[in-house]
Amino acid sequence: MTVDVLLQQFFNALGLGVMYALIAVGFTLFFGVIEVVNFAHGEVFMLGAFGAMVVGTAMAGAGVEAGSVTYLLAVLAIIIIVGALFGAALEKFIVAPMRGAPDIMTLLITLGASIVVREAVMIFFPDGRNPQPFPQMIQMDSFNIGGALIKPETIICIVISAILISMMYWIIEKTALGRYIRATAQDRQAALMMGVNANRVFIITLILGSVLGSVAGLMNGMSYGIIKFNMGFAASIKGFAAAVVGGLGNMYGAVVGGLLLGFLEIFVVSFLPNGSSYQELVAFLIVILCLVFRPSGLFGEKAYDKV
Amino acid sequence: MNMKLLGAEVLLYVLFLAFILIENPVFVAVYIAAIVAGIFFAAKKYPEKLPVWYDLFMANLKQVGAVAFVLGLTLPIIIDGDAYWLQVLNFAMINAMMALGLNFMTGRAGLICLGYAAFEAVGAYTVGILTLKLGVSFWIAFALSGIAAMVFGAVLGLPALRVKGHYLALVTIAFGLIVQETLLNWESVTGGTNGLIDIPSPTLFGYDFGQMLDLGFVSMNYLGHFYYLCLLVLALCTIFIFKLSNSFFGLILSAMREDQLAAQCYGINLTNYKLYAFAIGAIFGGFAGGLYAAMINFIAPENFSYGLSVIVISMIILGGLDSIPGAIVGAFFLTIFPEKFRAFEDYRIMFYGLIIIFCLIFMRNGILPYTRRIFMSGLENKEAEENG
Amino acid sequence: MFFNSGLKKAMAVATVAATSAVMLTGCGGGGDKKTEVVKIGFIAPITGNNAALGVGMKNSADLAIKHANASGKYPYKFELVVADDAADPSTAVAAANKLITDKGIVAVGGHFNSGCALATAPVFHKNGMAMLVTAAIHPDITGKGYKEITRIITEAKAQNVYAGELAAKTWGVKTICLINDRTDYGKTNASQFGENAAKNGAQVLSDDGINVGQQDFSAVLTNIKAKNPDCVYFGGMATEAALIKRQMADLQMNCLFLSDSGIISDTFNKIAGPTAEGMIAFNIGKPLEDLPGGKKFMEDYAAAKYPEPYDNLGHFAYDTVMMLCDTIGKNKVGTDRKKAIEALRKAEYDGVLGKTSFDENGQTKNTLITTYISQGGKWVAYDKASIQVKDKKIAAK
Asked: Are residues A269 and C273, on separate chains, in Cβ contact within 8 Å?
C-alpha cells in the first residue's frame, strides 16, 4: 500500500469521523443532561439534509448562485431553524410527557417518534420514497495533497465540525447557560433548589443537540450528494455507538469515539480481506467489545447507583 | 364456571369474527370506532363497574383462556377454511408467541430488547437447516429451535450483564443486526441472501401437514394444520409463561425491574436472573421462528429485520407491558388490523410508530394493564418528591 | 376488555351494523351470466417501494383482459383478480393463498421480484395452480422442475453471458474489479459477469461486497483505484450505483463502470447528476419501440387513459395476462386448473415481446437483451447513443 493511498484513506476516515462525532455529541448531551437516549436524533439529521436540499434547490431556482454568501446563509438559517424546531417539538410532545416514567419508556417513545418522522417524510415528501439528489453547494475543484484527492466539501465539514465542537465547549464551560446545564446534569434536584429552571435547560439542551444533528445532516448531503428518508437510522446507530464508546455523557469522549469509529471503519475496509462487507458492522462490534471490557466507555466515569 | 364472563367472551368472539369478515375498509373503520366509542361511553357512564369486570376477568384467567382455546378451535370452520385469513391468523399467533417472549424479557424483567427478531431467525434457521439439509424430523428440529434460541438468548445476556438500560438498547440492536449479517454471509449453511427454499412440511406418523385438511364438512388447505399447531403451541406457551410469571422466580424478575439496587440488597443475584430472563424470553421467539419456517417453507435474512423487532415492541406496548393477555391481544390486533387496510399499506409502519407514541403518552399501561393502580403522571411524582 | 350492560347495547348495535356491512359487500357481484366467467389472478407490488412499477403492471394486465374480452375470439368472459405482494416474500405467500382460495381463478400471472416468486413457487406447486412469472429473473424459479411454473421473461444469466462477452471480447477489457451489494440479485449478476468475462480472457482483480443503505464507499474505491482496473462492474440497485459513480468521480477514476438492469431507472440519472454520463448497464428486454408489438402497446395504453404510466414492466404484464387468456381460450380450459397447467406448458403465443414458447423447465425461449448507456441524463440504447466505448474509455462516436 503506497503513501498516497494511505493518505487518501486517512482523509476518508477523517471525513467520516467528524460527522459521527457531531451526531455523537448530541446523543451524549441529551443523555448527560436529560438522561434520555434519543432514538429520534437520526431524524433531525435527515430533516436537516432535506431542509438544506429544499432551500438550496429553491435558491438555485430563484437564480442565486450556489456558493454565494446569500445562498450559504439561507441554507445555514434553515438548518438552524429545522434543528431548533425539532428539538423544541421533541421536548414538548415526546420527552416532557414522559418525565417521571421509567427510562425504558422514554427510550421507546423516542423510537416511536423516529419511526413516525421517517415514514412521514417517505409518504408526504414528493417522491420521498426514492433517494433525492442534493444540490451542489460549493463549486471548487478537489485538492491534491501528496497524491490524495481531497474534496473541498470534506475540508469544509472538518472545519465546521471543529468550530461547532469548540463552540459547544465554550458554551458549556464558560457561559452561565453552560453552568446551568452542568448543574442540571450533575444533580437535577439540587439545581432546581438553586433556582435553575430545569425545564428551560432541557429544552435548550435538546435544541443545541438537535442543531448539531441537523448540521451533520447538511454535511452528509454535501459529502455524498444523495439523501434519502431512511438515512437517519444508520447515522443514529453510529452516533450512538460513538457516544457509548466515548462514555455516554462525556462530550470529549463522544468526539474521540466518533473519530475512532470513522478510522476503524476505513481501517477494516483497507486492511482486512473482503473488509468492505463488514464496514457497516464495525460500529456494533466495537460497541459490544467496549461494553464487555469497559462498560462505561473509554472516558466515562464508573457509574454508581444512588440510593 | 362464571357464566357472565363466558357470555362476555362469546360476545367478544362474535365481534372478532365480524371484524375478520367485514371486508370494506370503511366499514372496518366505522366498526372499530363504534367499539372504541362504546367502551369509552360505558367507561364514562358506569365508572364503578369497569374495575369490577376487570377484576372478574383477571380472577378467572384460567376459564377465559380455556374458553378462548375452545372458541379458537372453531374459528377455521366458521371462516370456511379461507386460506388467506388462515394465514393471517397463523401470523397473528406466531407474533403472539414472540410478543409473549419479548414481554417476559422487557415487560417482566425490564430488560429492553430491540433485536428480538434475531431469536425468531435462530429458530427458523434451526428448523430450516435441520429438516432441509440434514433430514431431521420436524418435531425434533422444532424442540431444538427453542433450545437454540435459548442459547442465543444467554449469549446476548452475557454482554448485557454489565450494562444498564440505555446501553442494553444498543447492544440488542447490534445483536439483531449481527445475526442478520451472519445469516447473509455464512452462505454454505444458511443459503446467504437466497435463504432456504422449499423447507419440507412436517409429517406426523406418516401424515403430511402439507396436504389439504379435510374435516368432512369443511376442507381447507395445508394452512389449516398449521392453524391448529400454532394454536396448541401458543396455548402451551401461554400456560408456561403464566406459571413462570406467577412463581417466586417471576416475582424476583419483577423486583429486579422495579429497583435493581433494592433487589440486590435482598440478596438476589442479578447476574443469574438477567441471564435466565434473556434465555427464557428467547425460547418463545425460537418456537415462533420454527413454526414460521415450516409453514412458509421459505426463509431469508430479510424476514427477520430490525423492523420486525420494533413491530413486536409496539405489540407489547399496546397490550400493556408485563401483561400476558395484553401481549396476545396486542399481537392479534396489530397483525390483523393492518391487513384490513391493505390499500393503506404505505402507512403501516407509521401506524406502528403512532401506536407506540399514543400508548406511552395516553395509556402507559396498555389496553389490558397488568395491575390496576393509579399511575401518577411524572409531574405529580416530581412534585411529591419535592414537597416530601 | 371491560363490559357492562350499557356497553352490551352498544356492542349489539355494532354487531348489527357489521352484519349488514358484510351483506352489503357480499352482494356487490352479479353481472353478465351468459358466457362463462373465467378469472385470472395477477400478483404485483401495488404498495411498497416498487409500487410505481407494480401499478404499471396492474394497469397493463387490466388492459390485456379488456382486449381479450373485446376480441371475441374466446368463449369466456375474463376477469382479473389482483393481489398485492408488496415485493415482500411473506406478503407474496399470503397473496398467493388468497388467489388459490378463489375457486373461479384458473391461472395466475405476475411477480416483480425474485424473492416473491421463489417463495410462492412451492405454494402454487402444492396447490396445483399454473403460475406464469412476469418479471422475476432468478434462475431457480423455473429451475426447480415444478410443472406449474412458467416464465415469460428471459432469465438473469443470459444478460451476464452477453455482457461478459461484450466487455472482454468487443471492448477489450483485460482487468475487472467487481462490487456487489450482497443481495441475491447483485451478487448473482456480479459473479456471473465475472465468470463470463474471465471465460473470454479478462482477469478479475477483486470482488467486494457492500451493504444496501451504505453511503460511504471511499475506502473500497480507494483500494480499487490502486489496482487500476480497466472496468468496474457493480451488481445491485440504483442508489448504491449512483453513490459509487459519484465517489468514483471524486477520486477521478475514469475507467468503465458497468452494471445490471437494477439501476436502469430515472432515479439513477437524477441522483447521480452529471456524473451519470457514460454509465453502462445491461437489461433484459428491449426498448418497447423496438419490440414487435411495442408501438401498438404504447398506443393502446395511451388510448385506455390510465392515470399512471405503464413504467418499465407494463408490456411484460400485458403479455403475461394476454398469453394466459389466449391459452385458456384456445384450449377451452374453463376453470379446470389441471388442464390450464398442461395447456400452458405447450402453449405458443405471439405478442408484444415476440414469440413465446417454453423449454422443458418452463422458461421462455425468447431471449431479449439490450445494452444501455446514460447520456444527457437519460438511458439511451447503446447503438443509438452518440457516445461509445473506445479504447476502454467513454468517447464520442
From this structure: no
User: B357 and B251 in one domain?
Assistant: yes
Domain assignment present for residue A260? The answer is: no
Q: Check if B342 contacts C (Cβ < 8 Å).
A: yes
Sequential pLDDT tens for chain B (388 residues): 788 888 888 988 998 888 888 878 888 889 889 988 988 888 888 878 777 887 787 778 888 888 999 999 988 888 887 878 888 999 999 999 999 999 999 988 888 899 999 999 999 999 999 998 898 899 999 999 999 999 999 988 887 777 766 788 888 888 898 898 888 888 888 887 778 888 888 888 878 787 777 777 777 778 888 999 999 999 999 999 988 888 888 888 888 888 877 887 887 788 888 889 999 999 999 999 999 999 888 888 888 989 899 999 999 999 988 888 899 999 999 998 888 887 777 888 899 999 999 999 988 888 887 764 333 444 444 444 444 3
Query: Domain limits at B51?
Result: 1-59
Containing domain of residue A138, as a range?
Answer: 23-229
CB–CB contact B298 C183 (8 Å)? no
Q: Residue B287 is which amino acid?
A: F
A98 touches chain B (CB under 8 A): yes
Tell me, yes or no, whether B71 lies in a domain: no
User: Is the CB of C271 less than 8 angstroms away from the CB of A279?
Assistant: no
CA distance linking residue C265 with residue C190, whole number of Å: 19
* Predicted TM-score (pTM) of this structure: 0.84
Q: Cα distance from B107 to chain A (closest Cα, Å)? A: 10
B74 within some domain: no
Q: C-alpha grid cell for residue B334?
A: 396489530
Sign (positive or negative) of CA dihedral B206, B209, B215, B220: negative
Option in B18, B46, B296 nearest C4 (CB): B46
Pairs from B370-378 (Cβ < 8 Å, separation ≥ 24): B370/B107, B370/B320, B370/B321, B370/B322, B370/B323, B370/B326, B372/B51, B372/B54, B372/B55, B376/A100, B377/A100, B378/A97, B378/A98, B378/A99, B378/A100, B378/A101
As given in the structure block, the three cell numbers for residue B276 are 435466565
CA–CA distances in Å: residue A102 to residues A35, B114, B364: 11, 17, 11
Cβ separation of A230 and C213 shorter than 8 Å? Answer: yes
Domain membership of residue B375 (yes or no) is yes
CATH numbers and ranges of domains, chain C: 36-154+289-366 (3.40.50.2300), 157-284+370-396 (3.40.50.2300)
Give the three cell numbers for residue B144: 431444538
Number of folded domains that form chain B:
2
Amino acid at C356: T
- Answer whether A111 sits within 8 Å of B114, measured CB to CB: yes
Does residue B43 sit in the same domain as residue B95? no
The total domain count for chain A is: 1
Host H or E run for residue A251 = helix A251-271
C269 → chain A, closest CA residue? A133
Among B23, B194, B303, beta carbon nearest to C90: B303
Interface predicted TM-score (ipTM) = 0.88
CATH of the domain at B126: 1.10.3470
